[in-house]
């Protein structure tokens, strides 16, 4: 949900993010729904495409890892 929140806050569609990443919209959708996991390099690419600090995503994951 973090990526969806950040993408929507940036006013971007999945298609726009996919274009920035040079990927298909379905790739972005599968990441946002949790069907596909990201490695660190991909997380940084998403952060650059959407415009957020990737450390925020890592902090959020660490805060919820026990849930």
Automatic annotation (TrEMBL):
Name one molecular function that GO assigns to this entry: DNA binding
Query: Which PROSITE patterns would you find in this protein's record?
Result: HTH_CROC1
Alphabetical list of Gene3D superfamilies matching this protein: lambda repressor-like DNA-binding domains
* Span of domain HTH cro/C1-type: 3-57
Task: Enumerate the Pfam families for this protein.
Answer: HTH_31 (PF13560)
Query: Which InterPro entries does the annotation name?
Result: Cro/C1-type_HTH, Lambda_DNA-bd_dom_sf
SUPFAM superfamilies, sorted: lambda repressor-like DNA-binding domains
What is the name listed in the Swiss-Prot or TrEMBL entry for this protein? Answer: Helix-turn-helix transcriptional regulator
The species is Bradyrhizobium barranii subsp. barranii
């Amino acid at each position: 949900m973090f990526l969806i929140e950040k993408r929507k806050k940036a006013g971007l569609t999945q298609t726009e993010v996919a274009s920035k990443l040079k990927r298909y919209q379905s790739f972005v959708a599968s990441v946002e729904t949790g069907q596909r996991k990201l490695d660190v390099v991909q997380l940084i690419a998403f952060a650059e495409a959407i415009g957020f600090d990737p450390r925020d995503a890592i902090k959020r994951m660490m805060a919820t890892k026990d849930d």
